Amino acid sequence: xxxxxxxxxxxxxxxxxxxxxxxxxxxxxxxxxxxxxxxxxxxxxxxxxxxxxxxxxxxxxxxxxxxxxxxxxxxxxxxxxxxxxxxxxxxxxxxxxxxxxxxxxxxxxxxxxxxxxxxxxxxxxxxxxxxxxxxxxxxxxxxxxxxxxxxxxxxxxxxxxxxxxxxxxxxxxxxxxxxxxxxxxxxxxxxxxxxxxxxxxxxxxxxxxxxxxxxxxxxxxxxxxxxxxxxxxxxxxxxxxxxxxxxxxxxxxxxxxxxxxxxxxxxxxxxxxxxxxxxxxxxxxxxxxxxxxxxxxxxxxxxxxxxxxxxxxxxxxxxxxxxxxxxxxxxxxxxxx
Amino acid sequence: xxxxxxxxxxxxxxxxxxxxxxxxxxxxxxxxxxxxxxxxxxxxxxxxxxxxxxxxxxxxxxxxxxxxxxxxxxxxxxxxxxxxxxxxxxxxxxxxxxxxxxxxxxxxxxxxxxxxxxxxxxxxxxxxxxxxxxxxxxxxxxxxxxxxxxxxxxxxxxxxxxxxxxxxxxxxxxxxxxxxxxxxxxxxxxxxxxxxxxxxxxxxxxxxxxxxxxxxxxxxxxxxxxxxxxxxxxxxxxxxxxxxxxxxxxxxxxxxxxxxxxxxxxxxxxxxxxxxxxxxxxxxxxxxxxx
Amino acid sequence: xxxxxxxxxxxxxxxxxxxxxxxxxxxxxxxxxxxxxxxxxxxxxxxxxxxxxxxxxxxxxxxxxxxxxxxxxxxxxxxxxxxxxxxxxxxxxxxxxxxxxxxxxxxxxxxxxxxxxxxxxxxxxxxxxxxxxxxxxxxxxxxxxxxxxxxxxxxxxxxxxxxxxxxxxxxxxxxxxxxxxxxxxxxxxxxxxxxxxxxxxxxxxxxxxxxxxxxxxxxxxxxxxxxxxxxxxxxxxxxxxxxxxxxxxxxxxxxxxxxxxxxxxxxxxxxxxxxxxxxxxxxxxxxxxxxxxxxxxxxxxxxxxxxxxxxxxxxxxxxxxxxx
Lengths: 337, 291, 324
Prior knowledge:
The complex is a heterotrimer.
Chain A: E1 4-16, H1 21-25, E2 32-44, E3 48-52, H2 59-66, E4 74-79, E5 82-83, H3 89-96, E6 99-102, H4 116-126, H5 132-145, H6 151-154, H7 164-176, E7 182-186, H8 197-211, E8 214-219, H9 222-228, E9 231-236, E10 239-245, H10 246-251, H11 256-264, E11 312-315, E12 318-321, H12 330-333
Parallel strand pairs in A: 3-8, 3-9, 6-7, 7-8
Antiparallel strand pairs in A: 1-2, 1-4, 4-5, 9-10, 10-12, 11-12
Chain B: H1 5-17, H2 22-40, H3 42-45, H4 78-114, H5 116-131, H6 134-145, H7 149-176, H8 179-186, H9 191-227, H10 239-246, H11 256-284
Helix pairs in contact in B: 2-4, 2-11, 4-5, 4-7, 4-9, 4-11, 5-7, 6-7, 6-9, 7-9, 9-10, 9-11, 10-11
Chain C: E1 4-17, E2 20-33, E3 37-41, H1 48-54, E4 63-72, E5 75-76, H2 82-91, E6 93-96, H3 110-120, H4 127-140, H5 157-169, E7 175-179, H6 187-204, E8 207-212, H7 215-221, E9 224-229, E10 232-238, H8 239-244, H9 249-257, H10 295-299, E11 304-307, E12 310-313, H11 317-322
Parallel strand pairs in C: 3-8, 3-9, 6-7, 7-8
Antiparallel strand pairs in C: 1-2, 1-4, 4-5, 9-10, 10-12, 11-12
Helix pairs in contact in C: 3-4, 3-5, 4-5, 5-6
């Protein structure tokens, strides 16, 4: 599609697992972790996509692949028509500067020794987008924009002189200063004080609104995702199991795993569906179950779910990979365990 | 930002002297500073020339008011020789430490950050150098090059480059996994920017600690070299050399010929060792928080 | 109302650190009834864990109980010796933490670790008895008895937390302190661990004191909630009332700041930052962030304003609450 900013096609990222000396001597083959195993989606301009899943689902690896921090073994990541998995040299650099990152731990994602303002200015210098004094002036402006006022004072502070929320604002300022088209934010609020999380989400939301940035929000918390996302991709063991507009997917999911996720999330609301019962815990990504990867935990699993990898199916805007999906409104009727 | 270089430096020193390991750091710095001042001010401190027999001085005179450290077999004033000798040892050791650092640190940075075949090759070379007993290697190198302070510094450099290399590389491997380095990689920062602007400053404390500890070791190795006449030629003032000639008169009861050079070597080595230990406590211990 | 099992009176727990005195718990009164589930909710640094653990006499250095008392079944824990406390813990008060691997010995089977605790506290007289009790405890928490011979690393995160719960309940305690028991787990697993705890509370009459930063979770599972802010419990009451019509502005704003999956309301952060527990604000500690604050809030500790089932420490508790 012409208007899409990012197209990910059949992306696979595998890691070899460490073999002990004994295993090497015995000539055992590498065990492979299939962290991302055939993921496809598209992201439009100004769109906020949430990638939701539990630990081991591959959501963080997916983000790292888009940021170029890990190399995919196959598949394509088309950013504005350029394949990030293959781009080299100048072309790669030109595209990279249009993608920024915000990481989970604001205590560790900043250089502990450098004044935070300098760190905000740094991407401009790295990409030769401004001279030193110009970069400094722009960094001050950006600090102001993310609410760190007076900027002239915050500029010279070191990370340890700031609170967690303030540091995450610095990280967002650093991500925005190059006027990127895409921000990949990996759990940007999970280490922030509960009472301050909304303001960090609001910053990302206003970046989309005012600067037209697209956002990939990687999170384990689908309630956080629903605050700012338009679309959601629910991941399980390296695959997307359901993808679509977030309201539709949350309120009326088709995939049993999505149903389990949304009904397990604590809520103070009285209007909420009954808990969807699942067994066990997420499997080992080095050794995923055959057929549908969710079948060992699924109360709706059929005999063929053990053998057949479910094909994709579509239903009023959402896509899901399941042989025995919930029907419309099925979430609210509940399932007997 | 504001303030002169000197006042900023004093600020850093004050920060190091307070906090954990501060007493060791302060003592070490005091000892080193004392010897450095003695070396710089040698012409004014030394009462006599180091290699001329002062008028009226006897041979092998025991310590007295006129000759606080006594005189040697040629009637030279031992105190003056110690004072001038401080110049030699400090010159050799500081020069060699700076050269070792200049070679070992960049290699360690590159090796640790980029990895790959170069890293494996360098590690192998450095490990084999490291496995060699330091004093024997220094003697071998210095014998080939001939006796001079510069050659001695080169010989010591060969011995201590692997120490700087290994410690720097280990620190880089730690830092490389820090999320802030990953964040820089994600924004497309070139390797040299990450290394020079971010990894090097964060590795600096480690390098300082190595500087203290390796220099302490280098002083002892240097003494060994000069003992075998590989640093200076008699009658140039040199602690190791004085130790060598002094030992011949030990049986005659002239203890001061051995004691004062030996004590100076140990004290200076102790100074650097305390500096290194103090710094390593200072940087390893960081206060936790409660809540 | 049921009999009170834990009664905290004027409790103050301070940490004496190099950078100052941290007033983790600074004057707390609470009464916990036998068989109820009480959740202490607060942000990081509010002192919620310190409060919960001091209810079993567990205060780690450099922390000290500097005032007040903790009555457990009529006995003042602050007056007991270390040995007396140790006997009480485990036997009558169990505890589970966020990370069960931190206190499960990686080199011994989980069954033997539970059995050892059972023997040590004299609940069983022989090793085979102890082992049987350990297996029963595992079955109760949904871990097959055959897994008693497994080592901690052979279990998943959720199973390890189940083992920790089994170890805590094997001695049949009256109270279980659960310090962020599900924070490290995924939501689907969290839901099942909470279900397990709920079942233990209902079937065995276990009293549960849970600590969490997740007010929605607290609202779902608890009978009563204590909301902590900067070392003080600022609101106390039934879960339904605290969530449904909070009296304290902090409670109300906290609820408004948390994304909720099913009520699609706008979320708003609380302005400002949580206070430094070394330098808590004067008067009402929430006043620098409070939209209702007046001059009096700066200078005076607000009184406890009672509601039908609890209280809130706020000058405006009466007026501010109902309007939700």
